[in-house]
Write a structure and sequence with these properties.
The chain is of the alpha+beta class. The protein folds into two domains: 58 residues; 245 residues, chitin-binding protein cbp21 (Coagulation Factor XIII, Chain A, domain 1, Distorted Sandwich). It is built from six helices and ten strands. Strand 8 and strand 9 form a beta hairpin. Helix 1 packs antiparallel against helix 6. The radius of gyration is 23 Å and the shape is globular. The N terminus and C terminus are likely disordered.
């Protein structure tokens, strides 16, 4: 009888264990995406953002937010249906008017930023932890944009400089290719709207970027969008914990690690990996729950013998 009871307990545990994993699997499906190159504010200031999340701007954003930006890939608003300018108010463009992301709207000129060159081909890396169909619209603030003031719709052109529909998800990211406007200088905002067609959601993101102060520098550029090459003696060294910026199988032309700085030229953030995101620890939690259950099952026969 004791052996039969033990056998039944183990069988029941085997049947229940997969069910215990379901909440964590469902949790990972709730994650979606954000730009990592040029790095978005929400990613730079998240726990995944490396040294960027220790910058003064990110510290202020987290304080204003009241919580860290753990769900960096979940800045989405349902039911907008293309009415972005009617639904999202001025000054709330970076947060999508969501209280959980309000710290991203702080007007300041020291956000971590990616260096770009005007008029060249840009490949944006938009990390995604679950695939959706939809259209990406990329905007660049008008000449004369003041980053020390709240971002408003009037700071953006009426039409995007690029529109990409249903790009493939490759190695955990969408790779969006577009040619940058030629007439931008200084600090600007790259604003991305991702309107899903497979869900009712629209995603919003702000990527701070910096162009050379003199537009004539674009004529001398020979590389695609990214940081200008630094002399060997002044190039920062990568820390042992640095991640590869793009998978080995990423499409040709994809930029490497974004040159993100907090004003002193020091890299402070890197591109995400396909397995990164807030969902990863949840799966581990599910596995831990199963281990606890199995440990309990092992004790059942012993308790029955007593």
């Amino acid at each position: 009888m004791t052996r039969m009871t033990a056998r039944l307990s183990v069988t029941a545990a085997a049947a229940v264990a997969p069910l215990l994993l379901l909440p964590w699997v469902a949790g990972s499906a709730q994650a979606h995406g954000a730009p990592t190159d040029p790095v978005s504010r929400v990613y730079a200031c998240s726990p995944e953002g490396g040294a960027a999340n220790r910058s003064a701007a990110c510290g202020a954003a987290v304080s204003a937010n009241g919580a860290p930006f753990t769900a960096w890939d979940n800045l989405r608003v349902a039911g907008v249906a293309g009415r972005d300018r009617q639904v999202i108010p001025d000054g709330r463009l970076c947060s999508g008017n969501l209280p959980a992301y309000r710290g991203l709207d702080l007007p300041r000129a020291d956000w971590p930023a990616t260096r770009l060159t005007p008029g060249v081909r840009l490949t944006m890396t938009y990390a995604s932890t679950i695939a959706h169909t939809g259209t990406f619209r990329l905007y660049l603030t008008r000449p004369g944009y003041d980053p020390a003031k709240p971002l408003t719709w009037s700071d953006l052109p009426t039409r995007p400089f690029a529109e990409i529909k249903d790009p493939p998800l490759t190695n955990g990211a969408y790779h969006l290719r577009a040619t940058l406007p030629k007439d931008r200088t200084g600090r600007q905002m790259l604003y991305t709207i991702w309107q899903n067609s497979s869900t009712p959601d629209t995603y919003y993101s702000c990527s701070d970027v910096v162009f050379p102060e003199k537009a004539g520098a674009a004529a001398k550029a020979t590389k695609t969008a990214g940081a200008p090459e630094a002399p060997a003696s002044s190039r920062p060294t990568r820390t042992p914990s640095a991640r590869p910026s793009t998978p080995a199988s990423a499409p040709a032309g994809t930029p490497g690690t974004p040159s993100v700085d907090a004003g002193d030229g020091t890299p402070v953030a890197e591109a995400t990996r396909a397995d990164a995101g807030p969902s990863a620890p949840l799966v581990a939690g599910g596995a831990a729950a199963v281990l606890v259950l199995v440990a309990g099952v092992v004790l059942v026969p012993r308790l029955r013998r007593r």
